[in-house]
Design goal:
Elements: H1 26-46
Amino acid sequence: MLESDPDFGTQKRVHKAYKYRIYPTKEQQQLIHQMFGSKRWIVSLCNPPFDT
């Protein structure tokens, strides 16, 4: 699809999604919780709450 194509931008886009189910072990669950907990802490540190 090139910009010189007369149908450029008018064609429908197809979005595909895949769902996966995982079954982590207890050790893997702990690591996942630690990873997301650290992410939340860093995001909160970088984005202080707004005063309303």
